[in-house]
Amino acid sequence: MAGQRIHLVRHGEVRNPDGLLYGRLPGFGLSDLGHRMARAAAQDLADRSVPATRLVASPLQRTQESAAPIAELLGLEPRLDERVMEPWNAFEGRTMHGPYSALKRPSSWRHLVNPLKPSWGEPYREVVARMRAAVLDHAELAQGGDVIVVTHQMPIWMVHLALAKKPLVHNPKQRRCSLSSITTLEYHPATGFVEIDYRDPAAPLAAGAVDQGAV
Predict the structure, then answer these.
(1) Cα separation of 193 and 208, whole Å?
(2) Does the pTM exceed 0.90?
(3) For a Cys-Cys bond, which of 82, 110, 163, 186 suits 3, CB 3.0-4.6 Å?
(4) What is the mean pLDDT of residues 45-63?
(5) Shortest CA distance to 85 belongs to which of 121, 53, 119, 49?
(6) Residue 36: which residues within 8 A CB-CB, separation 6 or more?
(7) Residue 103 domain-assigned (yes or no)
(8) What is the CATH number of the domain that holds 168?
């Protein structure tokens, strides 16, 4: 018998002309392409008649905008939860690439002393703990219905690694979590969570997308 499902949806492409690491900074909304990507994710959920009774989103602009077409197509009211937000990071608002990269400045090196934690931002274990708490709470409130959580790349990948019992330390360039992708978990009260599916409904749009700025 299938258990209750939680669908972790990443936001679409963000308008970020300066290539900044935007983290939790306000004012970073979806690009025109990002809106189309978010619509593709919403359409995928609707086409599969996902029996969701609860829609949750991070309070950041890009996730709220990505949740909007899901709310429209599935008739759900988005609920904001800070626990599914992007992790905080010491390099927010700075570029991490090219000649002006923050990594080339000696003043930044103190943030790089412990990549296992990591020392430049919110500890990996704290991200896992808050995501788990949020998902458990919303699963209970959904009363057996599916839950859709519109969130960010790093929190989704932390959940994936934790469920796979893999080390949380990782290379961000190797995350399997594309823009507007959907990672699905199944939940049984007796046995907990297991990841059962990953899909990339916005893949046909990805060729023109710029995916940088995530923590």
Answers:
(1) 34
(2) yes
(3) 186
(4) 98
(5) 121
(6) 12, 202, 205
(7) no
(8) 3.40.50.1240
